[in-house]
Every structure is written in structure tokens, then in C-alpha cells.
Specification:
The protein has 136 residues and is an alpha/beta fold. It is 40% helix and 24% strand. A hairpin with a 2-residue loop joins strand 4 and strand 5. Helix 4 runs antiparallel to helix 5.
Amino acid sequence: MRAVGLVVEYNPLHNGHLYHLQAARQLSGAEVVVAVMSGNFLQRGEPAILDKWTRAQAALAHGVDLIVELPFANAVAPADRFASGALNLLATLQCDSLVLVLKIQRSIIKVLAVNWRYYLICMSIFAIISKPTPPN
């Protein structure tokens, strides 16, 4: 059985998330969708609009098969540690692939299907994204 991994917050779940979920199934050909989701606090320590139970129920209702909570220490960390914690969980759960969404510009969204041999490339992408932009 093939599984695809997603890294999500669903704060709250919206049509863009549903697109990501559908694209993940199509691109990966997986029978199972595994989501690593933040708990009640999100990246950089921001509190979630909806509690983790409500967000998990919405995810399950829309096609996620298994939700694993990202540990608090990773969930509230900068992007590189957030991503590292999430990707390590998905690797431990033996997901065959990973589908990421990158916002290139406000109106351009790129969906990437990645298998685990590209794990280090993914980590490099997250490290680059997480670097602060110098002020103008």
C-alpha cells in the first residue's frame, strides 16, 4: 500500500488545501494520505484559529486517512525546524512520497510531488525559504 505524506496546518481548511489534498492523491498514486499537522499552536508560536481536534475532523472528512500531530517544539519553530520535524515523522511512518505546495508569487502556486531520495533537496528548499529577507 502506497502512502503520500503532507505537511499541513489547516488553519482553517480551505479550497487551496483541498486542491493540495486532491493533487497529492493524483500525483503520487497513493491509496493512503498521511498528514503531519500542528497542534493548537502553529509555526512561529501563533495560536491556531480552530483547535487541533476541529482541524483534524475537517481533514478526515475531506480525505486525509491518518493525522499525526507535529510535536510542539517543531510546530512553533522557524520553518527549517518545522519542516525537519514534519519530514522526519513522515519518513518514520514510511510514506512513499511527499507532496509540497510552494507559493512562488501571490498568484502562482507550484505543487511538487517528491519521493524520499529527494529528501535533502526538500530540506534545502525549506532552509532557503526560512531565511529572513534583509530590509530594503
